[in-house]
Amino acid sequence: MNEKILYTRGDDCGISIETNFAIYIASKYGILKNISLIPVSPYIQYAYTILKDIEDISFGFHVTLTCEWKNIKWGPILDRNKVSSLVDENGYFYPDGKTMFEKRVERKDMEKEIEAQLEYLEGIGFKISYLDIHMGIEWVNNIEEFILELCKKKKIIFIDKRYKKIPYHNFNFDKFLSNLENLKSGEYLLITHPVFYTEEISSYSTYWENGDAIIEKRKFDLMILTDDRVKKMIERKKIKLERFKRED
C-alpha cells in the first residue's frame, strides 16, 4: 500500500454535553470521521439529536461494561437483577477489568448486556458501522470471542488491534505535527477524547487521574481535531482521512 490513510476516532460520546458538543464541532468542522458511542452514558440520546445529520461520519459501538468515573455513574441497559454479576452494591458497573475479574462477573451476563447495548443504540437511530471496547476488558471471560461473533453476525467491523496507532505525541502539538509529516504509507488510527472546558466538567475525575489532568488532555484532543495547521499538514502530505464502513 502506497497510500497514507488515517482513521480519526472520537471516544466516549454521550458522557457529557461538553463531550457531545466537542465531537459535533470536530466532526462537522474538523477532521473527526468516526464517533464511538457509550450506550449507557447519560447524554447518548442528545448525542443522536445533534449528530444524526452530519455527513461522512461513521458511528461505532463502544462496548461499555465498566465505569471508571467518580462523578459520573452508570450501570447496565438491562434490569440490574438480570445481569447482577456486572454491578456493585449500588447497581453501577465496576471501574475496570481487574475488578470485574476479581468479582467473578459471569460471561452470560456480559453477553446479554453487550447485545442489549447494541440494540439500544440502533433503537435510538444510530447506524453502527464498527465496534471497539471501552477500557480494554476483552480479556475478561474471553469476551472478545463473543464480540467477534457478534460483529460477524451484524456485519460490523471490530477495529481493536486492526490498525497501527499514530506515533505517540505526549500531548505536544509540535510532536503531533511532526508525526503527521513523517507518516509512512499504511493505515493508522488516531484515538481521541475531545471535550470543551466548563467548570462542571473540570470536576470530573477517575479512580486514577484527577479532573484537571483529564481535561487538559481532552482539550488538546479537540485542538488537534480542529486546528487549521493540522488540516493543512494532512492536505500537504496527501493523508487520506477515512471512516469505518460496514461489511455489508
List keywords for this structure.
alpha/beta, TIM Barrel, 248 residues, globular, single chain, 8-stranded parallel sheet
Question: Care to describe what's here?
Answer:
The chain is α/β, with parallel strands linked by helices and 248 residues long. It has helices at 17-28, 44-51, 97-102, 107-124, 143-154, 173-181, 199-202, 211-226, 228-236; strands at residues 4-13, 34-37, 58-63, 128-133, 157-158, 164-165, 186-192, 239-242. The chain has a single domain (4-242), classed as Alpha-Beta Barrel (TIM Barrel), CATH 3.20.20.370. Strands 1, 2, 3, 4, 5, 6, 7 and 8 form an 8-stranded parallel sheet that branches. Helix 4 (107-124) packs parallel to helix 5 (143-154).
CATH architecture: Alpha-Beta Barrel
Specify the helix fraction band. Answer: 25-40%
Counting structural domains, the number is: 1
Shape estimate = globular
Which spans have pLDDT < 50 for at least 5 consecutive residues?
A: none
Report the CATH superfamily. Answer: Glycoside hydrolase/deacetylase
CATH fold assignment: TIM Barrel
Distance separating the two termini? 23 Å
